[in-house]
Prior knowledge:
By secondary structure, the chain is mainly alpha-helical. The chain has helices spanning about 1-15, 20-35, 40-60, 60-65, 70-90, 100, 105-120, 120-140, 145-170, 180-210.
Amino acid sequence: MSIGLFFGSFLLAFSGAMMPGPLLSATIGMSPHRGPWVGPLFIGGHGILEILLICLLLLGLGPLLTSPVAFIVISLTGAAVMLYMAYGMFRSLPAIDLSTQSGRTVGGSLMSTGAILSLSNPYWIIWWGTIGLGFLMRAREFGSFGILLFFAGHILGDLVWYAFVSWTLWRGRGLLNRNRYRALVAVCGTAIGGFGLYFLISGLRPLTEAFI
């Protein structure tokens, strides 16, 4: 039964990782020139944050993390982070040169980016405070080993997909000339900016409704 918990957690995380989001957009935009480790390092930062979040949920702080106030604060903060990141990506377009940046990977920086993008997404915290918490309580029935299996399956699902995306884009970088790569970064920057605007509207909506 505990093995089923591992594979169930893996499949749930893998299917979720494939869905478009800020972290995936950043992985696609950065992998061709930062290397095949972009995705795994992003997930490293993402995973450390998830460990901390799981500890908070086990301490009973789920209702606080998913409260309306927390949602508004995280949404508005996340919107600011993502809009600034999108601005930086567009600002860098004139100087982008795939050949001169190939292979440059800064582990600490990429892990921090993965953590920041995860923390900036209010729906990631809501998922953990609802669906994730339900799975976590089920895993808790098997003790610490069950929680470990659940998390191992979950983070492995994320890691497999993001490693695949990074490696594929890195291996296929020969198909990208300077203009194509600029276009790819522009598309990813637009996607991240779009998520930022969506989070901004999501965070502002409860505030506007309170005054109507």
